[in-house]
Amino acid sequence: MRELHTKLKSLFPVGDLTEQRSNLGFVTVPQEHLRAVLVHLRDREGFTHLVLLTAVDWLEAGQFQLTYLLSNRTAGKDLGVRVMLARDGATMQSIHDVWPTAATYQRELREMFGIDFPGSPRLHEEFILEGWNDIPPYRRDFDTLKYAQENYSERPGRVTHDPAAHMKQKLNSGGN
Amino acid sequence: MTQNAPFFTPDRSQYPAKKADGTLDIDIASGKYLKLWQGPNHPGITGNMSVELTVCGDEVVEGKTHVGYLHRGFEKLMERRTFIQCFPIVCRICVPEPDFNEYCYAAAVEELAGIKSPERADWIRALILEMGRINSYMMYLGGQAGALGLGVIGQWTTYARDLMLDRFEELTGARIYHMFIMPGGVRDGLPEGFDKRMEETLREVESTLKDVYDVMFCNAVFKKRTVGVGYIDPALVDSYGITGPNARAAGVAKDVRKDQPYLIYSQLDFEPVLGQDSDIFTRADVRRRDVLVSVDLVRQILAKMPRTGPLMATVPNVLHWKIPRGETYIRGECSRGEYGYYLVTDGSGYPRRVNVRGPSYTHAVSLLERMIVNLNISDVASLMVSLHTYPPEIER
Amino acid sequence: MKDELKIRVVKGPDGVEFEVEPLKDYYCEAAPTVMPAAYIKVVEDLFNWARSESIWILGFGTGCGAIEMRPLMTPRFDAYRFGVQWRPTPRQANLFVISGYLSTKTLKRAIRSYEQMQNPKYVIGLGSCTINGGMYWDSYNTIKRLDDYLPVDLYIAGCMPRPEALLAGFQDMKKLIRAGKAEGANLYAENFEWYKANQKRVIHDWDMPDYNW
């Protein structure tokens, strides 16, 4: 992992390595260099398998984090490439020509997070949702409980407890 | 059928031309093409999903997978549940083999929280995962035979699976959703006399497999309709993210249990099952032999596992459990391929983001859409089953 | 609305052009009507006995409950001895088992399937998630109570219900039918407007006719 990171660092302006396990690391890459890094990792370093592509919403920082997780099977190593995007008007270059399956991931991200990937095939077709009329549901500022209560009628009699308060009351011991 | 019937050459002249942007130029009103929806209410579909076929005669010129019929928004729901509240809902993501969700989630939480599960718990986890794998494969074998009209195979394999569900029931208390592998360990040890009853069940599974081999794999109709149909080029394995038996049937020895051994798999003796021809028949055969490997693994685990020792590591008070900021990815080899959980925490009592990487995600969407072209309509169901896709893990 | 549902002009193979309006031409527009009971009670009892002994289930696995249906078809549980069997098309079925949570996307297909079924028809809600949302009580994509959208005759609780629970449910269903109490289809016809209003409130892109007969 370390040698790989040093090698990458000499070629691209990548950030520091977060070593989660001996065979799993995460690096941050500037948005405009992502494609070059991915192609380099795929063709030169043997990271031929795109395991997943997903996004994390850091609402407080106003950023989306895209994670491209690549795997090198022969070396038994995984590298997560992180890209930080500005949250409003998030747009990212598409990598569907590097890995064909990325098109599906990008369709999902477009629908669930509202991140645009210009040029990705069938990007604007509905993938999972149908007739969705609210903000993309996986964004942090979307409140699923509020949406459910507004849209679906509930059967009366359902009670929801806060687990900590409920246990405290049930144990009747003052709690820890 | 088309591949091994040389006298039938389809008339390609009426096939659609490609437009500049790569999409097909299909004019439905011309009368040459027909839109055919297979699913969601269709017995040949592997669950609640649908494939929109555009056919010309009885050949498919374009197929589009439609998913989302089972979307419950797990990844969103988990963001508003505490770490322990997530544990009972994760298994609902995948019905035939729910234990991988529990294992991957538990292992991801343990890694980020810095907990090490006890060794005995690891052995029981591996035992449960292998039992679940046998179940899932048995279900597949019945489905694969059923897609080609061999209904009786499904009766046999469902019965063998039911016996295995009984073992699950005495071990975990539930047939389908076990909720047994918790962050920190497992809920309970093996009940008394479990080994003996397990051995009886394994023998039953083996004898069922022998019958299945005789009736299904030696059946002329089954061979004729599967050999040479639904070929996956080994070169596609990496670019399309193909994992599991689909990759192994193409001769690529992709098996997470071997490549990055998790739990106690490094202490077990087994070889990944490989195939060569990469067609529907080989994929079915790889899975049949994989059941035998799993049966052997269950025996090895029962022989080698420690019988005493703690089952749960010490975990903090789950009501106030906060996990420091971090991210990790945990993978396991489920019966369909690489199953993985990507977990991001932010120091609060709730996960920041959970992403489930189901193997069907790539198999059922991009790969199926590519393979379905030029296929006969009657082979579509059999191809779908042979990829062993399971819709809930695509849309969660 | 999808392209294929819009009004368009089609040129037939013989060169004649004609207009098609898919939403109107392919479906019957008449709303469902209430089926009155037979005039003589003995005849109605005979009908109900016959109906109760041939429960044909639509093989549409709408959720995870579908996995416990398969063991029912095998000799171990053998639902066939109760006259229960599974049919591949709505036209041949008279019992719709909603096997688990319904996302709004599936709800749309479930409504279509239900309306295509012939009278007499019954609905069983399987699993806690059809009763009050169950595990998915706060999900943005699943409905919380099924009886707002389809007339449910019987609920089977549990997550997930065991095959034995399903068998008991089928027995209860038979009792209901024999007693003439399984009037879901008539309820649907009577309160058609109410059901449609509920359905349209959650299905945001309603691109099908009001009654898909």
CATH topology of the largest domain in chain B: Cytochrome-c3 Hydrogenase, chain B
What is the averaged pLDDT score of chain C?
A: 85
Number of strand elements of chain B? 8
Q: What strand order characterises the main sheet of chain C?
A: 5-6-7
Number of domains of chain B: 2
The domain count of chain C comes to 1
Helical residue percent band of chain B? 40-55%
What is the rounded Rg of chain B? 22 Å
What is the CATH topology of chain C? Answer: Rossmann fold
Residues in helices of chain C, as a percent range: 25-40%
Which residues of chain C form runs of ≥5 with pLDDT under 50? Answer: none
Task: Please give a handful of descriptors for the protein shown.
heterotrimer; B: 396 residues; alpha+beta; Cytochrome-c3 Hydrogenase, chain B; 2 domains; three-stranded antiparallel beta sheet; C: 213 residues; alpha/beta; Rossmann fold; three-stranded parallel beta sheet; two-stranded antiparallel sheet; 7 strands; 34% helix; 14% strand; globular
What would your notes on this structure say?
The complex is a heterotrimer of chains A (176), B (396) and C (213). Chain A is an alpha+beta fold. In chain A, 27% of the residues lie in helices and 23% in strands. Chain A has one domain: NADH:ubiquinone oxidoreductase Nqo5 subunit (Beta Polymerase, domain 2, 2-Layer Sandwich), CATH 3.30.460.80. Chain A is globular, with a radius of gyration of 21 Å. Chain B has 396 residues and is α+β, with helices and mostly antiparallel strands. Chain B has two domains: 12-66, no CATH class; 74-395, Orthogonal Bundle (Cytochrome-c3 Hydrogenase, chain B), CATH 1.10.645. Chain B has 14 helices and eight strands. The mean pLDDT of chain B is 86. Helices cover 34% and strands 14% of the residues of chain C. By secondary structure, chain C is an alpha/beta fold. Chain C has helices spanning 22-25, 41-52, 69-72, 104-116, 128-132, 163-178, 184-190, 192-202; strands spanning 8-11, 17-20, 55-58, 84-87, 95-99, 122-126, 154-156. Chain C starts with 7 loop residues before the first strand and ends in an 11-residue tail after the last helix. In chain C, α4 links the parallel β5 (95-99) and β6 (122-126). The interface between A and C is medium-sized, with 20 and 22 residues.
